[in-house]
Design goal:
The complex is a heterotrimer of chains A (about 375), B (about 375) and C (about 325). Chain A has about 375 residues and is of the alpha+beta class. Among the domains of chain A are: about 15-75, 3-Layer(aba) Sandwich (MutS, DNA mismatch repair protein, domain I), CATH 3.40.1170; about 180-215, no CATH class; about 230-375, Dna Ligase, domain 1, CATH 3.30.1490.100. Chain A has helices at about 10-20, 50, 60-65, 80-95, 115-120, 120-135, 150-160, 170-175, 190-195, 200-205, 210-215, 225, 245-265, 300-310, 340-360, 365, 370-375, and strands at about 5-10, 30, 45, 70-75, 100-105, 105-110, 140-145, 165, 230-240, 270-280, 285-295, 320-330, 335. In chain A, the strands form 3 sheets. Chain A has a 5-stranded mixed β-sheet with strand order 5-6-1-7-8. Chain A has a 4-stranded antiparallel β-sheet with strand order 9-12-10-11, with helices on one face. The longest helix of chain A is centred in the C-terminal third of the chain and has 21 residues, at about 245-265. Chain B has helices spanning about 5-20, 70-80, 130-140, 195-210, 260-270, 320-330, and strands at about 1-5, 30-40, 40-45, 50-55, 60-65, 65-70, 85-90, 95-100, 105-110, 125-130, 155-160, 165-170, 175-185, 195, 215-220, 225-230, 230-235, 255-260, 280-285, 290-295, 300-310, 310, 315-320, 335-340, 350-355, 360-365, 365. Classes of the chains: A alpha+beta (about 375), B alpha+beta (about 375), C alpha/beta (about 325). At the B-C interface, loops of B face helix 3 and helix 4 of C.
């Protein structure tokens, strides 16, 4: 049987600040959102004390200030958070060889087969959460299940500072009363369509197997899953079918920006890129390419997927869906290229800048700063 | 055409030529060697179109002319005949008669007119240099040539004339770059050219054989020529632009570490046992007076080793592919000091060896 | 020998002559047209014209370069085809060929690569070739040869300049058979007519054998009555055994319906292919059956295309003969 532990750090950036300055303990700590210019930045993390006032991440600073005037506003110290993140992952690495880094503060640990060495998974989970707290003074929450999606949902529900264990066989009972929007991958748009169909809880969804299969694959606990890399993907169904390469590339750019941004946020590089094309008659093709050097840079991703598009799209046929996904994700362990080093270095600087701006002003504003304009 | 030669002389030249005849058999005549008998001497030529070898044979020309015959069969016949004297004669309809003592063979050949023609080099266009110089330059660069068949311009060693009589040879596979400049002579090149790996490894074989002596080098439009003793080797050049390597070689990396070659080599060999099979990644941490090398393999365990280093720069922890380091240490063999010129953990480093002034190796780090 | 001596193909020749004369050869051509009409012959002629020592923008056929090309021994001219015993051109062949293109030319003139038939490259091989077609190495000339462009990736097609070869006219095939094959007599006209414009097909026909078969086929088709699907199925089974045989039958069936049509409209016995079967034709042809003949003509060419694409022969033939049976009811 497989065992997956999903660990999610509680209010990570704010908690790191508290760990570094224990006098902040129990106070409404708000990271980000103060950046000089009349508090126009957005909140990147808020302690649970601050959340009581209604402050949450991605909220504009001035609004947070209004809701919580006594809040302690601190600047982002990303490097520091990364250092702590590395320490957290170093602890996790002692418990399993297979750790999926989902983001700076979220991890999926495959505990399958560790029982003989470490004892029951529940005991291991408890030990992990306690060690993170004892050694790093950081609170975290965990979800333990035979299924990775269930583990994630459990961890979200366990917050803050809790642990939910779903014994094997109880997955559906546990999920049934939960709202469908808890399922990773069900965004606001899908959520709305589901509500229109009368689907509110995961139980409602599971009652419709063909729909459930699309959003929640409970069968995926088995062996095939273990060989699959975690991947980052995005796709779009365009309203008007697209006929020209130009129009398709516009859509691709949006998808690439999203995928690139998510890769960089998770501090991951992808070695494999996949393009999905669906024609008006629902015929769907996917084409992948493995890269010589992994990337997380929009421009490099775009170059590959647009090449895949140009090589594979049937001329004159209308396309109604395009998808881009990145897989074979790595955060280290590859040889950097020597010949296009200058270009890669400049990308690294460029996208660091773009991401910073996006963090500050929101994704929309910075769309124009991507190389789209230059490439056209 | 009719010639007489000693079995041993003929065999030595045929050995060279038959080893490169085309095996894929895309052009019928490439399975053959061309034998040319002229007043000036007897020559045997073979090619697979990438490389051509032409060897002289001592012997008597009874009648001038030329013919081509199957290289393997001719080699086998000459190897097996009992008598020391061999006579070769072209008969009607392109048949060839081989006589030695009481043995007579008749095999059919093909008209020599159809054999690919190699350009004529006159000796004034060639420059002569010690064979050891050329061999060393090839050996120290060829290991960095790319094996990625889709990047043709990296599938060979770039060679160009530098200041004075200096010649540069550069090879890169996109991860590392080997560069050497030495005094060789005037090659008559106005622009750099790319010599294919296959031609160079044949050339290395030629240079490794026989006495050290001297070699002559020269270039034509599409061909490079090297002549040593009685053998001439033609290399067809790769069409394409070699990347601007001068942009890739970092200048003024501020942190310099000096290490004992042998000690570094042994430490690297040991630590790399535990680096992953695929990427061979190791971590090198340069700190005051020492270098610690470590490898971490989730399936096996970890290894750490410390080496004394002359180093005063800031502490730098940098990842490298151990194989790339072992490669360069192998070609720079011998006692001495290895110098690392480092900038930071994401920029290329330069590796040099004390006493090998014209040589440098640029290595891009790994992300660790 | 020169370009002028090539029989037929006025338009393709004009295009290539002009390109040669102005020095503006495209880097990649796609020669499309029925099998056996002379696409490969023209591709080789083009290679000779590029390399010939004696004539500019044409070839002599006698110089050392022309001879080498004719014997397959020219270092800058290569023909890529399935290795003996293989159906496909392997990806390794494509890679070797691309590698060769990346060497500088031996002679200083263009490196010519002819891929015949191009559709015998599988998808992986075609994709591998794509990169070379997109960024052709200097001084290269790639000629893809295909019976129809359908077997090629759209992306491959779109990167080549397409030159379409029409079937040769009957008199052109006859001219070839007389001039190049030294044939004479009545048989020449008949073979030319039966070849459907393909010299390859004309040479593949055994005249005597064919006359016999034709009578059997005519009897078979003539015997198909409206609604007799069992007879049609039996005929399909009998014909499906050999690919060559099936294709010959369909080629003949085309000539047969063509004759019925021609005779039905014009009543002119001289224009027939099956000259010696005038009686049967006269008996079976009637003005009322024109529509039917046209339908049968179309069906036979579709069926032939299906067999070329290696569809199940029996099913293709059954479908075809059923259509014929249905048409007669």
């Amino acid at each position: 049987m497989s065992w997956f532990l999903h660990i999610d750090m509680d209010a990570f950036y704010a908690s790191v600040e508290v760990a570094l300055d224990p006098s902040l303990k129990g106070k409404p700590v708000i990271v980000g959102g103060r950046n000089g210019r009349g508090g126009r930045g957005v909140v990147t993390s808020a302690s649970y004390e601050a959340r009581k006032f209604g402050v949450h991440s991605a909220m504009p600073g001035f609004q947070a200030k209004k809701l919580c005037p006594q809040g302690i506003f601190l600047p982002n110290r990303r490097r520091t958070y990364v250092e702590f993140s590395v320490k957290v992952f170093a602890i996790l690495a002692q418990y399993s060889p297979t750790i999926h880094k989902l983001s700076i503060d979220e991890a999926l640990i495959d505990l399958t087969g560790t029982e003989r060495l470490l004892g029951p998974p529940l005991k291991t989970t408890d030990e992990i959460i306690r060690r993170i707290e004892k050694e790093l003074a950081l609170p975290s929450s965990g979800g333990l299940s035979t299924n990775r999606v269930v583990a994630k949902i459990a961890a979200t529900l366990a917050k803050p500072h809790g642990l939910i264990y779903i014994p094997a066989g109880c997955e559906e009972n546990f999920l049934a009363p939960q709202a469908v929007e808890m399922i990773p991958g069900v965004g606001p748009k899908t959520h709305k369509t589901m509500l229109q169909r009368g689907i509110q809880t995961i139980g409602d969804l599971l009652a419709q197997p063909e729909l459930a299969a699309r959003y929640l694959d409970l069968g995926a606990t088995t062996k095939s899953e273990q060989h699959h890399d975690h991947s980052v993907g995005n796709e779009t169904t365009s309203i008007a079918p697209l006929k020209t390469i130009g129009a398709m590339e516009e859509v691709l750019w949006d998808l690439v920006e999203e995928v690139g941004g998510r890769l960089r946020h998770a501090e991951l590089f992808a070695r494999c890129l996949t393009l999905k094309i669906r024609y008006s008659n629902f015929q769907t093709i996917t084409r992948s390419r493995t890269l010589p050097s992994p990337t997380c840079f929009d421009k490099e991703i775009f170059q590959v997927v647009s090449e895949l598009l140009r090589q594979n799209v049937a001329q004159g046929r209308a396309v109604r869906l395009l998808g881009v996904s990145a897989s074979a994700l790595q955060d280290s362990g590859w040889q950097e290229p020597l010949l296009d080093r200058e270009r890669r270095n400049s990308f690294e600087r460029l996208y660091k800048g773009i991401d910073k701006l996006r963090e500050k002003y929101g994704a929309e504003t910075i769309g124009a700063a991507t190389p789209r304009k230059r490439s056209s | 055409m009719e010639i007489k030669a000693k079995r041993g002389d003929l065999l030595a030249t045929l050995y060279w030529t038959q080893s490169i005849v085309e095996r894929r058999n895309t052009m019928p005549i490439l399975a053959n060697v061309m034998i040319e008998a002229q007043k000036s001497g007897i020559r045997v030529t073979a090619t697979d179109l990438e490389v051509g070898v032409r060897g002289g044979v001592d012997g008597d020309v009874i009648k001038e002319g030329s013919i081509t015959v199957n290289a393997k069969k001719l080699y086998e016949i000459v190897r097996e005949v009992p008598n020391d004297q061999i006579q070769l004669k072209r008969l009607d309809n392109d048949w060839v008669e081989i006589r030695s003592g009481k043995s007579v063979f008749k095999i059919f050949g093909m008209d020599a007119k159809e054999f690919p023609q190699f350009p004529q080099f006159d000796s004034s266009g060639l420059t002569t240099t010690p064979a050891s110089t050329v061999r060393e330059m090839i050996e120290r660069t060829i290991f960095s040539v790319s094996t990625d068949e889709t990047r043709y311009s990296l599938n060979g060693v770039y060679i160009e004339q530098s200041e004075g009589n200096n010649v540069r040879m550069v090879a890169t596979d996109g991860h590392r770059l080997a560069f050497e400049e030495k005094e060789v002579g005037q090659l008559g090149l106005t622009k750099g050219v790319i010599l294919p790996r296959k031609g160079l490894s044949e050339l290395k074989k030629l240079l490794d054989s026989g006495e050290d002596g001297a070699v002559s080098l020269g270039f034509k439009e599409n061909m490079g020529l090297v002549a040593k003793d009685k053998v001439e080797l033609f290399m067809r050049l790769i069409d394409g632009d070699f990347p601007d390597y001068t942009k890739v070689i970092p200048v003024g990396n501020p942190n310099i570490a000096k290490l004992d070659h042998e000690e570094l080599l042994r430490a690297l060999r040991r630590v790399s046992i535990l680096s992953s099979e695929r990427y061979k990644g190791i971590k090198m941490e340069f700190a005051n007076g020492k270098l610690s090398i470590s490898a971490n393999n989730p399936d096996l365990g970890e290894a750490v080793e410390e080496v004394d280093a002359e180093y005063k720069g800031k502490t730098i922890a940098i990842g490298f592919n151990a194989r790339y380091l072992l490669d360069v240490l192998a070609v720079l063999s011998g006692d001495g000091e290895i110098e690392f010129q480092l900038k930071d953990e994401l920029s290329p480093s330069v590796i040099r060896k004390a006493g090998v002034d014209g040589y440098l190796y640029v290595l891009m780090p790994m992300r660790i | 020998m020169a370009l002028d001596e090539i029989i037929g193909h006025g338009r393709p020749l004009d295009i290539l002559r002009q390109a040669l004369a102005s020095g503006r050869l495209h880097h990649a051509y796609l020669f499309v047209g029925p099998e056996g009409v002379g696409k490969r012959t023209l591709a080789i002629a083009l290679a000779k014209a590029v390399h010939c020592n004696d004539s500019a923008a044409d070839f002599c056929g006698a110089c050392v370069n022309c001879t080498r090309i004719a014997d397959g021994n020219h270092p800058d001219v290569r023909i890529i085809e399935p290795l003996s015993g293989k159906k496909e051109i392997s990806i390794q062949q494509v890679r070797d060929f691309e590698r060769e293109l990346n060497y500088r030319s031996f002679s200083g003139k263009r490196k010519v690569m002819i891929v015949d038939p191009a559709a015998s490259m599988n998808l992986a091989s075609q994709n591998a070739l794509l990169k070379t077609l997109e960024e052709p190495p200097q001084d290269s000339l790639i000629i893809l040869i295909a019976a129809n462009a359908g077997g090629l990736l759209p992306t491959v097609r779109s990167r080549c300049l397409r030159i379409t070869f029409a079937p040769l006219a009957r008199h052109e095939v006859a001219q070839y058979l007389r001039a190049k094959q030294g044939m004479s007599g009545d048989g020449v006209e008949f073979l030319a007519a039966m070849s459907m414009g393909s010299i390859g097909a004309a040479l593949g026909l055994d005249q005597d054998e064919f006359v016999k078969k034709r009578r059997i086929w005519a009897g078979m088709v003539g015997a198909l009555k409206g609604g007799d699907y069992q007879a049609a199925a039996a005929a399909a089974e009998a014909l499906a055994g050999k690919r060559d045989e099936a294709l010959k039958f369909l080629a003949w069936a085309q000539s047969w319906y063509r004759d019925l049509l021609v005779y039905g409209v014009s009543g002119d016995g001289d224009a027939l292919v099956n000259l010696d079967m005038l009686e049967q034709i006269a008996a079976q042809s009637a003005p009322a059956e024109i529509e039917q003949c046209i339908a049968a003509l179309g069906a036979s060419s579709r069926a032939a295309a299906g067999i070329q694409r290696n569809l199940n022969r029996r099913m293709v033939l059954e479908k075809y003969l059923f259509a014929v049976v249905k048409g007669q009811s």
